[in-house]
Specification:
Layout (H helix, E strand, L loop, with lengths): L4 H15 L1 H5 L4 H4 L24 H8 L10 H12 L2 E4 L8 E4 L2 H9 L11 H10 L1 H4 L10 H15 L2 H5 L2 H18 L11 H18 L12 H22 L10 H31 L10 H8 L1 H15 L1 H16 L1 H14 L16 H13 L6 E4 L4 E3 L2 E3 L4 E4 L1 H4 L48 H18 E4 L7 E3 L3 E3 L6 E4 L3
Parallel strand pairs: 2-6
Antiparallel strand pairs: 1-2, 3-6, 4-5, 7-10, 8-9
Length: 527
């Protein structure tokens, strides 16, 4: 995906006709995308008015959230489930404390309607604290480009058009396989170093090491730089970046989903968040400038097919390259870590599936030091099935959110244009009527059986959407999958992963997070 200035002149037309054709096809089969909408969708005037969409009043909702209330201390997924049980598959939750009112839908037909009517420039809700930082504190970096997460309308479309050729095409992912494999091998060495020599169990701080692996991978992809986070020698700058990233990921959720006192005065948490954003921005800027100088020296010898993301984006606009790199850093750490943890846990809890996967991995890695390549990574269908199944059971994000692209009808109710709608894909993915034995980890449901299609293909295609759908789906989907697949391949080639503790519980904050410590056991594979 490499469009130069001409891409901007082509605008939205180029955006839809060129950059995203393959992008969309990877998510839902073309025939299913073209399925007709139900007949009543066009008859907005005959639908029940928006005011009649069921849901609690502001007072009822507030009482439920306060100490002693039925929803006190619930996470977001629990809160949605509670109200779905009470009001049905479509309901609305009122705005409190400066938040926004939104509709929640758990009807696959509604989800299809939302995505089919979102228009050429889909819009979603944004984080107010991120917008404040980018517009008020650091317009020097973000004044021209709001970024993929915060931009809306034509501005978003032009930004996505510019970055799509450098990120979303499959061939651009493949060139990173050897580099990301080197990070995965460092991760394996790190696991060997930190585990207990007697029990082979990793310490309670293992989640920190997972986050270091993720950050190391993201920075390598987005900024063409190794930080050395998985060794004992990483420098002060790398330490600052990982601490700031950790602070930002946790603080932004609290800032956005609690009373917005920061809009009245600068709360301590708000100051910490702004400092974390500043550190991420400054360190990223410094790393990218160093990479820019390094890449500039070899640009004459560089083949376009071998150029990485940063090198391609720098040729379009250095400022765009910086904003995109920071967006990848901010959006790619917690989500990838969450997906990796979910998969590792399910493999540890299902040793039979782990053994099948290990046998497949050993066909392409006969020795522990055998290289992972573009060619042999094609021959891991069970690994991809294992990842899909873990994303179904433990999706990093439980919902996709869009602003209605036009006046639409959902479940018989009028939904005015611009209404935020949360689509509860995560809950639908673990329901028996869509996936038999829904709570069971069955990677085989994603595999073809001879000439028959995979069992999972019989489910509505608008249910399983872990990376979203349409033009605004996750731009770095393939990179996230590659990071996880290479790490799991290396880990299972070297270790048998076990879990000897009570079942791990998960809680939805900014993403799905484990509530307990990740005390996995990693036993060496002899051969």
């Amino acid at each position: 995906m490499f469009l130069r200035t001409v891409c901007r002149a082509q605008g939205a037309k180029a955006f839809h006709q060129n950059a995203n054709v393959r992008f969309l096809a990877t998510q839902v089969e073309a025939a299913k995308i073209d399925a007709p909408l139900t007949k009543h969708q066009d008859d907005y005037s005959k639908a029940l008015p928006y005011s009649q969409v069921p849901g609690p009043s502001k007072l009822t909702f507030l009482k439920a959230l306060l100490p002693g209330g039925k929803c006190f201390n619930m996470d977001l997924a629990q809160l949605i489930t509670y109200h779905r049980d009470k009001y049905g598959d479509l309901f609305k939750l009122p705005a409190l404390f400066g938040s926004f009112e939104f509709v929640a839908s758990h009807n696959p037909n509604d989800i299809q309607t939302i995505f089919r009517t979102e228009g050429q420039w889909p819009e979603r809700t944004t984080f107010k604290s991120v917008t404040y930082f980018r517009t008020k504190i650091r317009p020097d970096i973000f004044g021209k480009y709001a970024g993929l997460g915060n931009a809306q309308g034509k501005e978003w479309g032009e930004f996505r058009s510019a970055v799509n050729p450098a990120i979303a095409q499959p061939r651009n992912t493949k060139i990173y396989i050897p580099k990301i494999d080197s990070v995965s091998m460092d991760f394996v060495r790190r696991i060997s170093e930190i585990r207990d020599p007697q029990t082979n169990q990793v310490p309670e701080t293992f989640e920190d090491d997972i986050n270091k692996w993720t950050l190391e991978s993201v920075v390598l992809i987005a900024m063409d730089t190794r930080l050395g986070l998985l060794s004992h020698t990483y420098n002060e700058r790398s330490a600052k970046l990982i601490q700031a990233s950790k602070d930002a990921l946790h603080l932004v959720f609290d800032i956005e989903f609690k009373p917005p006192l920061w809009q009245i005065y600068e709360t301590p948490d708000f100051k910490r968040l702004m400092n974390a954003f500043n550190t991420i921005t400054d360190v990223s800027d410094e790393i990218i400038e160093e990479a820019r100088a390094r890449l500039g020296k070899k640009s004459g010898d560089s083949n376009e097919n071998d150029q990485g993301i940063l090198e391609k984006l720098l040729k379009i606009d250095p400022l765009l390259a910086k904003v995109m790199a920071i967006d990848m850093l901010f959006g790619g750490i917690d989500t990838t870590s969450s997906a990796f943890i979910g998969l590792l846990y399910l493999l540890a809890k299902n040793p039979d599936k782990q053994e099948i996967l290990r046998e497949e991995i050993m066909t392409i890695l006969p020795n522990k030091d055998s290289p992972l390549t573009v060619e042999n990574m094609k021959h891991l269908p069970y690994l991809r099935a294992c990842l899909k199944e873990s994303l179904r059971i433990h999706p990093p994000a439980n919902a996709n959110i869009r602003l209605a692209g036009q006046n639409i009808v959902l479940s018989g109710y009028q939904i005015p244009k611009g209404t935020p709608v949360a689509m509860g894909n995560g809950l639908l993915c673990i329901e028996e009527k869509y996936f038999p034995n829904a709570r069971k980890y069955v990677p085989e449901r994603w595999l073809r059986k001879g000439s028959a299609p995979a069992e999972a293909k019989s489910a509505n295609p608008f249910i399983f959407l872990p990376f979203g759908f349409g033009p605004r789906m996750c731009v770095a989907k393939r990179f996230a999958e590659m990071e996880i697949e290479t790490a799991i391949a290396r880990i299972l080639r070297n270790f048998r992963v076990e879990w000897h503790h009570p079942d791990l519980k998960f809680r939805v904050k900014s993403v799905l997070e484990p509530e307990g410590k990740l005390m996995f056991t990693f036993k060496d594979i002899v051969n």
